[in-house]
Amino acid sequence: MAKAYERIADDLRQRIRAGEYRSGERLPAETKLVDEYRKSLPTVRQALGVLQAEGVIEKQHGRGNVVRKPRRLVTRTNERHQWEKDRARQSLDERQQTGATEHDTGLTVSDLVFSAEFSETEADEDLAEAFGVPTGTRLLERVYRTRYREEEAPFNVSRSRLLYDMAAANAALLDADNEPWPGGTLNQLHSIGVEVARITERIAARPPTFEESEELGLTAGVAVIVLRKTCVDIDGRVVEVADVTLPGDRTELEFTTPLERW
User: Fold this and answer.
1) For 110-167, what is each residue's pLDDT tens digit?
2) Predicted TM-score (pTM) of this structure
3) What is the CATH number of the domain that holds 55?
4) Within a domain: residue 173?
5) Strand 251-254 relative to strand 74-77: parallel, antiparallel, unpaired?
6) Which domain holds residue 186?
7) Average confidence score pLDDT of the chain
8) What is the CA radius of gyration of the chain?
9) Do 178 and 206 belong together in one domain?
């Protein structure tokens, strides 16, 4: 049986969806909600906390509880990887037309703001194990952020690592000024003769750090999805390890698994 705060949260959620309270509008004051629902102030606040955690409302200083403008939804499917691989060998003109973020959001290149930061680093124990190399091996770390022009926060923060000596086979891969690279990482690897055979994604969820909440524009209670992507080439060598932090309130992960017929 639903608890009182859950029933209040559900009623407010339905009223927001029905348009009674629109994006940017204030909800009634907490004292008025107490009178309306005939429940205690702590119960009402617990209900509002649920909606805040879902990203439906946000508490604004001086205004109270406000209906939050829906963020652009990102749907990340496992089928994107074959799409990226097929695209890796297309012409430059074709590759410049769209990218993985556009694929996941339905936006166009002109809708997006992209940034990349490159640095040389060394493999710690975790990354050394992931790559199957000695601790201290040189890596190229690329940090990517892409956001919708109408929003302040990026869709995610991606930390991609390549083996430095492997990437250096094409000097252009070491320069952040060449980003966004048409065709993404799979085309970059193709440019140095590497074909990716499989991609493994390990997914978990956890509370965000303070820095992640700030950067991703998360409201209190919203979790982050942490995804580690590992690319393996046709010779069984790990060629990329990326850690992607995604906001839980506007990311969907969709998996399609073809099943063989009996």
Assistant:
1) 999 999 999 999 999 999 999 999 999 999 999 999 999 999 999 999 999 999 999 9
2) 0.83
3) 1.10.10.10
4) yes
5) parallel
6) 74-254
7) 94
8) 22
9) yes
